[in-house]
């Protein structure tokens, strides 16, 4: 069984037929992973944050069938997350739509072993469900729901079983018997089922044990189904047994794999690796023929069929100058494959971050197809000539099923395989710089609607040059044995062959039987499976270590993550948007781990927005406060960050509040907004209501200005909407006419309002109000101490210099008194030197300045004393809640005056006077 294809057994039957019960047993006995579609749906619906819960629950209660996109995605995720290879999928596919949806998403990528049909009469089914309902708490185990479920089963699911019968996949099992009679009889290798037939079949013989010999043929079974007079012999145990056997490589397979490695003595004409003795393998090949049919739906999944790379046409089309001459090969024999021990000078040994995470991938061929109308194969280089027999023989990929943890480990430089060493590495692509504007950028691999691999123009030239140089390299001539044996190991770099081209790759996974590996194309971004063997994977010659990786992973800024369910038609539109020849790119951020954050545009058309538009309408629009969070867009903040901010609003819920971060984005937003003030919005929502959970700009009644906001709720009658201002954290009710779609220029900028709270400090609203009096309208510096799910824990540093009035400062300077923490912040050069007096006071308004003036240090006790007093005053101020605004303001300025008079006097007696 191929490593690359998970095995699936579908389990069907009426509600209560006992599918779940038997699956549990089969799973235990044969090591299959039992995935009940119904359970997965119930689990999803029970998640508090699930946006699909309502929809799912309604279907379950009505006995109708949940849309296939949902079920299929849940199944797929469960398969991916299990990291296993053999699955019993219980209760799916339930109708034609399910069959089609599954095909679209996964056909060719899994091996459907058979369909177990648990046949049980209606009465028994209903009785069992009602019995189960007493304890199960299921909303559908009642008579009313059951009636509907039975109808659905007869009308929709039975035809599915018939469909698979035609495919010769159905193994019918009488499920009306006792639990134990419907079971595997180990170790006799016989599947004992008895023959009590259900209502629609008349029993021909009762309680016979069935021989499960593997010789039962399709035609026999088919006959039986045509004349449903009894059960045909069921042969599943052998199948299951063989499935298990195939989980581990046989000794002979291991031997063979080993032999394949030992190629140094082999001469030209390498033997074609015969890995096809597995039945699935032939099936894979036959699947390949169909692959174009469902290409559309498979595109976000590993499509290993990158056999159409016509890089010459690609190069011609893109007018890239590329040396067709083989590079002068160094006659001197390269050092043997001991690269671990002797990395060439100047080559980084750190692991590259360009390891594609598990997930949907797309082939180069699509890129080529979209980039090149010329699809001729005119390669004159005999080394690269396409040869149909050289077709990459593995046609399905594991990458959709890779346990993501493995890749995470890889990214963290840890190998999943303990023995796999970290080897010499190719340097990472050079970092992108925030604000950078790039033109003529290619997408070498759109991994998902929100993640793409970008190739800058020069990268593209380099990648093409590498293809040519590798094709000409003496060690990479396919008609000759490689000079050096290559041992495939996880994390090892290698050269991988695809129809006339060798690519620089990294191995990320190796199949247990050592026959195939999953590799990442370092220069192009995709992850695909490769057969292991000298024809397909060889040692990467030393020359090819120096060039940094040619593509860089980037997230499309503002495009929601694609863990969501995306219908196939929407996906294909996304693909089309990501298949342009060239893009203009604005870099909004870069991080060496997560790659770039970019905005793509073509002729001024912003691709990010078009993709987002495609994705977001597909989300459930049910009122759910959390939804906007899915595409909320924050600066990536980390603990320890110190940021300039303005207090903006109370959260209204607790003692948390919002601050507005002040950075270059603020300036951009500010500028865009003030431009908007001048233009009258003609495209406001006057005729139609704005959609809930969309980003808009809204006019704030207090100042009549426009700000970015999202729509929380709408009242059509009153033509009003409640909006949440994303940069400030407050809500307000606004007339439709005062709402307009968000301008593109500021749509993807991070939301600047962040919710914060003070460490260990619970402030009442009144206290917060008092605090406001001190800090409002002035910049504060916040330091992130912790990051919670809904807020940041911060420490506040108040910039006293900004609180001080200008004339005070002048007096201060004129008198050349002690400079009290007067490092100004206005030039943004440095953080204020004011620090909290001690940690526990960090969040109160108690601040102790440190001093820039060396002469001030001599006055330390005085100053400390002074500030303690001020702190006390401020505390008192906090509690003088009942004061009118004026009174507290007055108090505040008094306090400041006191501060400065005392500092000016520079006298301890004065401080006592306070
Ligand atoms: N062969 C059987 N005889 C009697 N009761 C059974 C049998 N198989 C399952 N049950 C019971 O019937 C109910 C439905 O079984 P379950 O496996 O949950 O069905 P389904 O696969 O249709 O969801 C459960 O309460 C289970 O204990
Ligand atoms: O692929 C599936 C599996 C289940 N369901 C829904 O989940 C319910 C319960 O299914 P389950 O398989 O858990 O129970 P059964 O009906 O087999 O007892 C069904 O009636 C459907 O509404 C669905 O829509 N699609």
Automatic annotation (TrEMBL):
Its main location: cytoplasm. Gene3D superfamilies: 2.30.30.140, 2.40.50.90, P-loop containing nucleotide triphosphate hydrolases. Pfam families: ADK (PF00406), TUDOR (PF00567). Residues 689-749 form the Tudor domain. Residues 282-295 have a biased composition (Low complexity). Binds 1 Mg(2+) ion per monomer. A ribonucleoside 5'-phosphate binds at residues 42, 64-66, 91-94, 138, 149. Residues 131-141 are annotated as: LID. Its cofactor is Mg(2+). It catalyses: CMP + ATP = CDP + ADP; UMP + ATP = UDP + ADP; dCMP + ATP = dCDP + ADP. CDD domains: ADK. Keywords: ATP-binding, Cytoplasm, Kinase, Nucleotide-binding, Nucleus, Pyrimidine biosynthesis, Transferase. InterPro entries: Adenylat/UMP-CMP_kin (IPR000850), Adenylat_kinase_CS (IPR033690), P-loop_NTPase (IPR027417), SNase_OB-fold_sf (IPR035437), Tudor (IPR002999), UMP_CMP_kinase (IPR006266). ATP binds at residues 16-21, 132, 177. GO terms for molecular function: ATP binding; nucleoside monophosphate kinase activity. GO terms for cellular component: cytoplasm; nucleus. Residues 36-66 are annotated as: NMPbind. SUPFAM superfamilies: P-loop containing nucleoside triphosphate hydrolases (SSF52540), Tudor/PWWP/MBT (SSF63748). CMP binds at residue 98. HAMAP family: Adenylate_kinase_Adk (MF_00235), Adenylate_kinase_UMP_CMP_kin (MF_03172). Consists of three domains, a large central CORE domain and two small peripheral domains, NMPbind and LID, which undergo movements during catalysis. The LID domain closes over the site of phosphoryl transfer upon ATP binding. Assembling and dissambling the active center during each catalytic cycle provides an effective means to prevent ATP hydrolysis. Belongs to the adenylate kinase family. UMP-CMP kinase subfamily. Monomer. This is UMP-CMP kinase. It comes from Adineta ricciae. The lineage of its organism: Eukaryota, Metazoa, Spiralia, Gnathifera, Rotifera.
């Amino acid at each position: 069984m191929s490593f690359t294809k998970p095995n699936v057994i579908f389990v069907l039957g009426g509600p209560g037929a006992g599918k779940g019960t038997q699956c549990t047993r089969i799973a235990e006995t044969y090591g299959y992973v039992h995935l009940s579609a119904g359970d997965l749906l119930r689990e999803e619906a029970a998640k508090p944050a699930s946006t699909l819960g309502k929809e799912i629950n309604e279907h379950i209660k009505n006995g109708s069938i949940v849309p296939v996109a949902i079920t299929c995605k849940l199944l797929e995720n469960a398969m991916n997350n299990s990291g296993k290879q053999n699955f019993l999928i219980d209760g799916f596919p339930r109708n034609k739509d399910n069959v089609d949806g599954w095909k679209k998403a996964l056909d060719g990528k899994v091996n459907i072993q058979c369909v177990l049909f648990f046949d049980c009469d209606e009465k028994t089914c209903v009785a069992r469900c009602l019995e189960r309902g007493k304890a199960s708490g299921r909303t559908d185990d009642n008579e009313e729901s059951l009636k509907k479920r039975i109808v659905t089963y007869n009308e929709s699911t039975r035809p599915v079983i018939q469909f698979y019968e035609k495919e010769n996949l159905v193994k019918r099992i009488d499920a009306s018997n006792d639990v134990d009679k419907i079971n595997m009889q180990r170790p006799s290798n016989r599947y004992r089922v008895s023959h009590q037939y259900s209502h629609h079949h008349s029993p021909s013989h009762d309680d016979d044990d069935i021989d499960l010999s593997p010789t039962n043929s399709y035609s026999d079974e088919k006959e039986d189904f045509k004349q449903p007079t009894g059960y045909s012999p069921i042969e599943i145990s052998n199948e299951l047994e063989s499935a298990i056997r195939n989980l581990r490589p046989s000794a002979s397979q291991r031997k063979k794999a080993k032999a394949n490695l030992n190629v140094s003595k082999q001469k030209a004409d390498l033997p074609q690796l015969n890995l096809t003795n597995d039945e699935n393998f032939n099936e894979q090949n036959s699947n390949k023929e169909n692959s174009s049919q469902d290409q559309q739906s498979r595109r976000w999944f590993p499509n290993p069929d990158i056999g159409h790379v016509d890089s010459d046409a690609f190069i011609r089309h893109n007018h890239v100058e590329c040396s067709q001459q083989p590079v002068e090969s160094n006659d001197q024999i390269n050092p043997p494959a001991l690269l671990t021990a002797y990395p060439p000078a100047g080559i980084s040994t750190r692991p590259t971050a360009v390891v594609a995470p598990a997930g949907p991938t797309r082939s180069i061929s699509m890129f080529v197809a979209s980039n090149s109308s010329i699809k001729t194969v005119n390669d004159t280089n005999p080394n690269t000539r396409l040869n149909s027999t050289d077709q990459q023989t593995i046609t399905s990929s594991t990458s959709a099923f890779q346990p993501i943890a493995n890749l995470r480990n890889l990214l963290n430089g840890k190998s999943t395989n303990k023995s796999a060493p970290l080897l010499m590495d190719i340097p990472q692509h050079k970092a992108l710089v925030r604000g950078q504007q790039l033109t003529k950028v290619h997408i070498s691999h759109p991994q998902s609607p929100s993640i793409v691999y970008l190739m800058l123009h020069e990268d593209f030239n380099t990648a093409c040059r590498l293809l040519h140089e590798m094709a000409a390299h003496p060690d990479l001539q396919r008609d000759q044995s490689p000079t050096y044996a290559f041992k495939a190991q996880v994390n090892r770099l290698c050269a991988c062959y695809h129809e006339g081209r060798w690519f620089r790759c990294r191995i990320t996974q190796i199949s247990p039987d050592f026959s195939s590996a999953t590799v990442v194309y370092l220069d192009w971004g995709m992850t695909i499976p490769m057969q292991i063997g000298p024809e397909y994977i060889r040692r990467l010659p030393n020359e090819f270590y120096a060039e940094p990786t040619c593509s860089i992973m980037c997230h499309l800024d503002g495009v929601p993550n694609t863990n969501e369910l995306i219908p196939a038609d929407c996906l294909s539109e996304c693909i089309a948007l990501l298949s342009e020849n060239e893009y203009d790119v604005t870099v909004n951020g870069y991080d060496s781990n997560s790659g770039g954050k970019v905005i793509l545009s073509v002729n001024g058309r912003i691709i990010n927005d078009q993709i987002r538009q495609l994705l977001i309408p597909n989300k459930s629009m049910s009122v759910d406060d959390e939804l906007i969070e899915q595409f909320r867009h924050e600066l990536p903040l980390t603990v320890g960050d110190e940021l300039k901010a303005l207090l903006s609003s109370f959260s209204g819920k607790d003692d948390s509040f919002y601050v507005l971060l002040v950075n270059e984005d603020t300036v951009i937003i500010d500028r865009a907004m003030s431009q908007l003030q001048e233009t009258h919005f003609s495209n406001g929502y006057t005729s139609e209501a704005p959609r809930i959970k969309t980003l808009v700009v809204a006019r704030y009644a207090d100042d009549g200005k426009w700000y970015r906001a999202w729509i929380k709720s709408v009242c059509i009658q009153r033509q009003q909407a409640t909006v949440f201002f994303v940069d400030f954290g407050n809500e307000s009710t606004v007339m439709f006419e005062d709402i307009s779609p968000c301008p593109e220029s500021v749509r993807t900028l991070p939301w600047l309002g962040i919710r914060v709270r003070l460490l260990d400090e619970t402030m009442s609203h009144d206290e917060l109000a008092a605090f406001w009096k001190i800090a409002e309208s002035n910049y504060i510096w916040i330091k992130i101490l912790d990051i919670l799910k809904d807020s940041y824990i911060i420490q506040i540093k108040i910039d006293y210099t900004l609180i001080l009035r200008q004339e005070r400062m002048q007096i201060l300077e004129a008198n050349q008194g002690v400079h009290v923490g007067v490092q100004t912040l206005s030039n943004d050069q440095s953080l204020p030197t004011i620090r909290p007096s001690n940690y526990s006071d960090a969040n109160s308004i108690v601040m102790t300045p440190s001093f820039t003036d060396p002469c001030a240090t001599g006055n330390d006790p005085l100053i400390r004393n002074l500030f303690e007093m001020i702190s006390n005053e401020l505390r008192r101020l906090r509690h003088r809640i009942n004061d009118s605004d004026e009174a507290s303001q007055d108090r505040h300025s008094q306090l400041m005056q006191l501060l400065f008079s005392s500092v000016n006097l520079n006298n301890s007696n004065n401080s006592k006077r306070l």
